[in-house]
Write a structure and sequence with these properties.
By secondary structure, this protein is α+β, with helices and mostly antiparallel strands. The chain has two domains: 121 residues, Haem NO binding associated domain (Beta-Lactamase), CATH 3.30.450; 165 residues, 2-Layer Sandwich (Alpha-Beta Plaits), CATH 3.30.70.270. It has a seven-stranded antiparallel β-sheet with strand order 2-1-7-6-5-3-4. A five-stranded mixed β-sheet has the order 9-10-8-13-14, with helices on both faces. A hairpin with a 6-residue loop joins strand 5 and strand 6. The longest helix is centred in the middle third of the chain and has 37 residues. 29% of the residues are buried. Its EC number is 2.7.7.65.
């Protein structure tokens, strides 16, 4: 019994019909997806395929009958195929069946083949289902990992951020300073405390105070560079870290510019809030060994000096400064 073309296409979508002269005279629909029909029909079978035995090239040998064949395309992607050749009805050539003979990975990766490209009984379909299932699981896992990573980044960002102002918090500042010390990067540390902030809260309420703090945060970001750090470390206290900037004259100019900007009245619900700022500065050049706690304390000492001089001032820390000379000044928690 001889199968017609429709039956061959259904049962063996990866088949090749070779005539008595060794030329390809028919191909299955799936094989046409691997190579254009015009490239195959009429071509000598052994001009299209390399015939191999267990992967070893045997050259232009006679096509074995009823034995397992190992083939690769001579041109294009060197896809490895397995099949078997058997005589057609009444010696009308050979039927080469390549079903079950292509790697599922290559079928999907190189040719985008799907289950519809194989016979319903072809075990390749089962493998395709497994590949698709694995791909779906991997994609879902990838998306889950991306969501988890995003949540982790968001949580870390929240842990390092002051929620009211959007500035970094003390934890973030400590992390940045530790990194700078490990890399031996010089920096300046500027401690700012707002003057008369308590009056704003007492007179206009905490909503006005929040508005002032947000305006101050925006101002400080505008007055610093992208490589610098601005952190809110207390109710109305801020620390600015200037990366690789230790020129004292330059730092004092920045401090004076910040103080001038802080004295601009801030409108709130038809009223105006008036504050100023006192600043203390220290730089790594002043220390043989960098100690963050000591630098923060020294910047705070310079800040107290600014408060002692009448507020709205900036001072660079010097070794001659002593808190004993400013004992009449309220401590940090009582600053106004």
């Amino acid at each position: 019994m001889q199968l017609n073309k429709t039956s061959l296409d259904l049962l063996m979508p990866m088949h090749v019909v070779v005539d008595e002269a060794g030329r390809i005279c028919g191909i299955g629909p799936t094989l046409r997806k691997l190579r254009p029909e015009a490239q195959l029909l009429g071509a000598r079978f052994l001009d299209v395929f390399d015939l191999r035995d267990d992967g070893r090239d045997k050259g232009d040998m006679i096509l074995p009958i009823d034995k397992k064949l190992y083939l690769t395309f001579k041109a294009g992607i060197q896809t490895r195929l397995k099949g078997v050749a058997t005589p057609m009805h009444k010696g009308a050539g050979l039927l080469v069946n390549l079903s079950f003979g292509i790697s599922v990975v290559e079928a999907v990766r190189d040719y985008r083949l799907t289950a519809g490209d194989f016979a319903p009984t072809d075990l390749t379909i089962e493998m395709l289902y497994l590949v698709e299932a694995k791909t779906a699981v991997m994609e879902e896992t990838k998306q889950l990992n991306a969501r988890l990573q995003g949540a982790k980044v968001a949580a870390e960002e929240q842990a390092f951020t002051d929620t009211l102002t959007g500035l970094k918090n003390r934890r973030a500042m400590d992390h940045v300073l530790e990194r700078m010390i490990r890399s031996h990067s010089p920096f300046a540390l500027m401690h700012l405390d707002l003057d008369y902030f308590k009056d704003v809260n007492d007179t206009h309420g905490h909503a006005a105070g929040d508005t002032v703090l947000q305006r101050v945060a925006n101002l400080l970001v505008e007055e610093t560079r992208s490589e610098d750090l601005v952190a809110r470390v207390g109710g109305d206290e801020f620390i600015l870290v200037f990366h690789k900037m230790t020129n004292q004259d330059q730092l004092m100019k920045v401090a004076q510019r910040i103080i001038s900007q802080l004295e601009i009245p801030i409108p709130f619900n038809g009223a105006v809030c008036r504050i100023s700022g006192s600043i203390g500065v220290t730089i790594t050049d002043l220390y043989e060994t960098i100690d963050v706690d000591q630098m923060v304390q020294d910047a705070d000492t310079a800040l107290y000096a600014s408060k002692h001089e009448g507020r709205a001032r900036a001072n660079m820390f010097t070794s001659g400064m002593a808190l004993d000379d400013m004992s009449d000044l309220p401590r940090v928690a009582e600053r106004r």
